[in-house]
């Protein structure tokens, strides 16, 4: 009996240990649909533990450290990620989690969260912009409300940039996007990437930079729009402007493009605004490529008072910009004007500007100002090229430059050509006030039915240019330059300094197909103080002509000229 009790005492621990081993079916393996690998891959509960090099799909992870492995569509709370491949598709945590770091290989500074990185750019699509314009139906979702909401949001934070991703966006021609705060920047993905299409009828300014002036009621500061296109419907019912600046100092439109709009840019009041590296194609009949102006209404008194006038416009720059006009001979409306400068516009710079098939290249006048001091001031053009088209114009206005009541104009290397000639290429006038001086240096002017240049002003200078192809249909006015009596008899008679010119030909023996013999310079009865020197009349009928009755003692017309024999 003692032996039996002793044997049982030795066996009990062994039996207890054996009962802790689970009984497993021989069919349970590591692999297969019921294997341990499958079982462990479907669920992993880790509490205060460590999970390394795992592949997790749609997990709910809280308070863990994940090193290596792959995580997809996770809901993360208090998680630290390190060297983990994180695939972000639909989970909200992908965007808002402060735990996900943005650290591309090219970054050279500190890591930031993905949320902070996304906040660097505001997209119009964040506010409901939809790029669903259908060219076949000419319709789509009106994006004016979405764009306005984006502007309002950015302005609430003191201004900033709004990106419009590539796509085709419909916008109503009836309403504007009011760019209503300083420092606002709207930009696209390039003129071939981000495209706005006007729908319906209307005359609104599409993008209207119209913040309230803050600098003594004169200006607001800064606005910019670039790298996008605006397309009109060419339906005869849209007469608005694509881009407008009002009372801005330092606004710009650059790297933009339009097709079939009535007006490309309008600049009113303000200072130091600009348009550059842009194209305005197929401007609608009767429209304007670029317009800039101010007003002296309510601004009278001393010179300093006028300089501080809230509606004065000063320094508008047009650089490396093209304007082309639409043509339609069956509609009795002339092509668009290229550039229109008027009233209280103090300074305009044009450099590398091309104006093609326009009714008038550059128009300058002063119909509303009260004195010459508030008419267009210093207007400068460098390499301005104009190809004018007289369709539906009946010979007027001039094709390249139409200037009336101004202080000073200067053009360097102008290239003025009448592709479908009007009566004159250039007319310089002074109908209300005494106009100032005009200077041309170099360049070429060619192609007019009558005189190429007609001047009624008292101070014209032309040095080193070529003028040919004038008087194509009028033998009695086939003149390169006509100096005519001013229509206003109270103003000074005209005068000029002409030197080193080539009249009547554009090359050896070439008279540009002109059927009429040209005269280089024609002087009217009141023309006074004229010098003609160092000029060549090869191909002309005569170098100059003086009207009967001109008794001026201040004509010096024989200074080293080569007159035709």
From TrEMBL:
The keyword Signal applies. Keywords: Signal. It comes from Gluconobacter wancherniae NBRC 103581. SUPFAM superfamilies: Pectin lyase-like, Pentapeptide repeat-like. Gene3D superfamilies: E3 ubiquitin-protein ligase SopA (2.160.20.80), Single-stranded right-handed beta-helix, Pectin lyase-like (2.160.20.10). Residues 1-18 form the signal peptide. The keyword Signal applies. This is Pectate lyase superfamily protein domain-containing protein. It comes from the Bacteria.
């Amino acid at each position: 009996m003692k032996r039996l009790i002793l044997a049982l005492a030795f066996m009990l621990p062994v039996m207890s240990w054996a009962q802790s081993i689970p009984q497993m079916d021989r069919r349970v393996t590591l692999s297969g649909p019921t294997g341990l690998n499958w079982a462990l891959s479907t669920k992993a509960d880790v509490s205060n533990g460590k999970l390394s090099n795992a592949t997790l799909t749609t997990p709910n992870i809280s308070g863990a450290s994940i090193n290596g492995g792959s995580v997809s569509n996770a809901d993360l709370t208090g998680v630290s990620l390190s060297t983990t491949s994180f695939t972000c598709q639909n989970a909200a945590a992908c965007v808002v989690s402060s735990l996900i770091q943005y650290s591309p290989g090219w970054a050279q500074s500190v890591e930031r969260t993905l949320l902070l990185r996304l906040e660097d750019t505001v997209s119009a699509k964040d506010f409901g912009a939809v790029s669903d314009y259908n060219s076949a139906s000419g319709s789509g979702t009106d994006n004016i409300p979405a764009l306005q909401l984006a502007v309002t949001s950015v302005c609430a934070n003191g201004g900033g940039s709004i990106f419009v991703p590539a796509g085709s966006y419909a916008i109503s021609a009836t309403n504007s996007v009011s760019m209503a705060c300083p420092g606002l920047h709207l930009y696209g993905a390039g003129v071939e990437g981000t495209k706005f299409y006007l729908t319906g009828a209307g005359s609104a300014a599409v993008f209207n930079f119209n913040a309230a002036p803050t600098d003594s009621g004169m200006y607001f500061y800064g606005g910019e729009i670039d790298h996008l296109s605006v397309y009109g419907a060419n339906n005869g019912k849209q007469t608005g402007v694509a881009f407008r600046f009002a009372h801005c100092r330092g606004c710009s439109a650059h790297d933009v493009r339009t097709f079939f709009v009535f007006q490309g840019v309008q600049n009113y009041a303000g200072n130091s605004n600009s348009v550059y590296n842009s194209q305005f194609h197929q401007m609608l009949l009767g429209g304007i490529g670029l317009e800039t102006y101010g007003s002296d209404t309510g601004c009278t008194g001393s010179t300093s008072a006028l300089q501080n006038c809230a509606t004065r416009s000063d320094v508008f720059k047009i650089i490396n910009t093209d304007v082309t006009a639409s043509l339609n001979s069956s509609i009795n409306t002339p092509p668009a004007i290229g550039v229109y400068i008027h009233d209280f516009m103090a300074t305009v710079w044009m450099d590398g500007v091309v104006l093609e098939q326009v009714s008038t290249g550059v128009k300058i006048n002063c119909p509303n100002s009260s004195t010459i001091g508030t008419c267009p001031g210093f207007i400068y053009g460098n390499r301005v090229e104009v190809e004018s088209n007289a369709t539906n114009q009946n010979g007027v206005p001039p094709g390249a430059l139409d200037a009336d009541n101004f202080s000073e104009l200067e053009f360097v290397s102008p290239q003025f050509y009448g592709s479908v000639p009007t009566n004159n290429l250039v007319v310089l006038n002074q109908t209300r006030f005494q106009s100032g001086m005009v200077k041309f240096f170099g360049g070429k002017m060619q192609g007019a039915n009558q005189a190429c240049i007609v001047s009624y002003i008292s101070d014209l200078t032309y040095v080193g240019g070529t003028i040919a192809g004038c008087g194509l249909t009028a033998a009695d006015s086939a003149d390169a330059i006509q100096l005519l009596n001013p229509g206003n008899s109270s103003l000074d008679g005209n005068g000029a300094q002409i030197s080193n010119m080539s009249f009547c030909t554009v090359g050896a023996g070439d008279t540009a197909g002109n059927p009429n013999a040209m005269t280089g310079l024609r002087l009217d009865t009141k023309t006074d103080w004229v010098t003609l020197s160092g000029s060549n009349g090869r191909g002309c009928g005569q170098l100059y002509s003086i009207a009967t009755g001109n008794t001026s003692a201040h004509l010096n017309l024989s200074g080293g000229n080569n007159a035709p024999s």
